[in-house]
Amino acid sequence: RLDKPELFVRLTPHTALMSVGFSFVPHPPSMQMAGAFQTQMAEWISEFASYGRTSLNTLVVNGRRTCENIARNLAWYAAAPGVNRLKDRHRGTPAIIVSAGPSLRKNKHLLQQANGKAIVIAVQTTLQPLLEMGVEPHYATSLDHNDISTRFFERLPRNLRTELIAETKATSAIFSLNPGPLSIIGNELADSLLREMRIDKTRLRAGATVAHLAYYLAEHLGCDPIIFVGQDLGFSDGLCYMPGTSYEDVWRPELSRFCTVEMKQWEQIVRERPILRRISDYQGRPMYTEERLFAYLQQFERDFSTATARVIDATEGGALKRGATPMPLAEAIEQYCTRPVVRIEGDHPGYRWDILCEVEDSLQNRDREAADIAEIARGTLPLLEEIRDNLSDQSLVNRTIAKIDSLRARMNELGQSYDLITQMTQLTELQRFQRDRNIAAAKVEGEERQRRQVDRDIENVRGVMGAAGEFRTLIADVIERVKAAARSEQREAA
Prior knowledge:
Helix content is 54%, strand content 8%. It has 494 residues and is an alpha/beta fold. It contains 20 helices and ten strands. The longest helix has 48 residues, at 446-493.
């Protein structure tokens, strides 16, 4: 049946495999019997492949930066509370997620009518504009690793009540800039780095954007319905951002009568010309989006297909979102935001800076384990090279493999730390997967197959050696940061 969200769910486990390459093989009888169905499914499979490539490219490009940010934020991760206490806190209460799409300019004034009658969740870009309108969100979300995110927190009032819900991979500068309460979502990498501490932080689904995180937060809060505004996922009316955001502050030095804000908005769009694509907007009209926004749209549609709460798209612009009901914001407010929402104050438990010494101890353990992994890799490399150079002498090869097996057993004992280190080199992992597939597809046997496998392993071991060294450098930097944070808190306490 034609069910795009279900198709995406079923293809997701094969994302890496499809990234290596695939071909369509038309089946003529099926095309004759159900041509429209076959054509639509082929189009959706192509869209999934595009979504998968974007997701994997993002993982590879940002993987190292993400790991570095998570590690450098470990002091905050250990000290700040999680979102455990927020589970079902607002069950049955409407939530309005405010994003910074260009359509927000059409209906943002209506948010004042919903103020106090819905849980308002702002993505970090819209927090300051909402405060300037007199709407103080209950929550704001942040996960961007780029330092440009600090601009959204530079002018916030010191008495801010909005609780920032952040992922550990967010740029570390925002945690110290944020004047309001902060809670951090559980993270597998951070928990593994601090495994001795057994930190119990609730995890939410992984989101590609702050809007995804806001949606998963609304689900965690138990909100129903979940209403989106400013979520265009495309370039409505030739704009990429709502007027009035901090992006205009970045452009301001360039503005003149020959270079307007509208021109900068359009430049932002056309510089993405190679990855632009035409899609249908919420009224069925053609509009432009680009590959990344299109990938975000696919993730939203997949999420909406399994939603238990009602999902309403009150953007009044932007892309058509399957699984969400289009509705004007005024109508959504009138229908669902009918009762006052009590704002819960003062339940944030504060920060546990007293446990930073435990953080340091855990990091020292990771450093020792990384040194052991590097040593094992250095011992393995010459053995693999010996096998590569003597494949015709299977007696020697077998004896050398026995030596490698003993090293492999030692490496297996360090499995958790090995996984941490390989996250520093996602490209190496992807290349290994691709080489495995190429070896299988080549259908070679005997000595040729063994040679290809050994070449693959040599490259992988070299990648692990390099990643282990970078990991130790990062851990040394993080330990110094943790010590500095501990000294700072001791001074403030005194």
